[in-house]
Write a structure and sequence with these properties.
This is MARVEL domain-containing protein. The chain is mostly helical. Helix content is 49%, strand content 11%. The chain has helices at 2-10, 19-39, 96-122, 124-128, 132-165, 168-172, 194-221, 224-227, 241-246, 287-292, and strands at 42-50, 58-66, 75-78, 87-90, 184-189.
Length: 293
């Protein structure tokens, strides 16, 4: 508990109130929603086959399927309406690649968002040191934004195929007994795919969040100064201080005295005295003039 309290005391949780940290919290939450609604799905469809010989009928054929939607491995038994044992049939299609890719991106987004929040709260100074942490964060954020775009589009197409492959009207066509007119085949229960539709929506919401976060991370990278036009070309730079000493500006003013101020040459004692007053050299006659007299 002491370690936890110390970490909490040292944490800078005000970053969560800023866009940089707040969007990371949203990314963390919606990543959970995305991979959980897809990865935890299980559905069922139900059909009935009524044969001419009622004793051979099966009015409750149930077909269950779940993530990762390897439908070609899902089987069910259906009556042949010709006596004997029922036939074993399999659904059509394997859509595990798009579903697993979507869930993988969701899990890694969840982990990275949690790690980034920890960095923001506890080592924000190192994150902003030399802008290295922010630059890495920007690159990773851009990669995740692209991956959310690809995975969401792929899973949306995969979900459309899953709906088609699990449509009871389509599955009924796989049953040979339904090809005969004296037998009646109908769907009893359609699978509920509202959770899968929600997972696609969460995928595109994550795409928007990661794209929007690019701007706030970009402002932390320091790259904005390079694009703001603050660079001064070499021909507009001011000359170095030593150049003034060699030019006319650094030479001693002939009218300036040794003390840095203007001192008249009326007498040897002229100028300002130590008390700050002006000496009597101004009223005194020059020495050379008195000798001539």
């Amino acid at each position: 508990m002491d370690v936890v309290n110390q970490l909490v005391a040292q944490g800078q949780f005000t970053i969560i109130k800023q866009p940089l940290g707040f969007i990371k919290v949203l990314q963390w939450i919606f990543a959970i929603f995305a991979f959980s609604t897809c990865g935890s799905y299980s559905g069922m469809l139900k059909m009935s086959v009524q044969c001419k010989n009622r004793s051979e009928s099966d009015l409750g054929i149930e077909v269950e399927f779940e993530y990762p939607f390897r439908l070609h491995q899902v089987y069910f038994d259906a009556p042949t309406c010709k006596g004997g044992n029922p036939e074993r049939l399999f659904l059509v299609g394997d859509y595990s690649s798009s579903a697993e890719f979507f869930v993988t991106i969701g899990v890694f987004s969840f982990l990275y968002s949690m790690a980034a929040l920890s960095v923001y709260c506890f080592v924000l100074e190192k994150y902003r040191e030399n802008n290295k942490g922010a630059q890495i964060d920007f690159v990773v954020t851009a990669v995740f934004a692209f991956m959310w775009l690809v995975s969401s589009c792929a899973w949306a197409k995969g979900l459309s195929d899953v709906k088609t492959a699990t449509d009871p009207e389509r599955v009924i066509t796989l049953i040979s007994a339904c090809d005969e007119q004296e037998n009646q085949c109908r769907e009893v229960y359609d699978p509920k795919v509202s959770g899968l539709n929600t997972s696609v929506a969460f995928g595109f919401i994550n795409l928007i969040l990661w794209l929007g976060n690019l701007w706030f991370v970009f402002k932390e990278t320091g790259w904005m100064a390079a694009f703001s036009g603050t660079y001064v070309p070499s021909q507009e730079k001011q000359p170095a201080p030593d150049s003034f000493g060699q030019g006319g500006y650094g030479q001693q003013d002939p009218y300036a005295g040794s003390q840095g101020g203007y001192q008249p040459e009326y007498g040897q004692q002229g100028g300002y005295n130590e008390d700050g007053g002006y000496s009597q050299g101004y009223d005194q006659q020059p020495t050379s003039y008195s000798n001539q007299m």
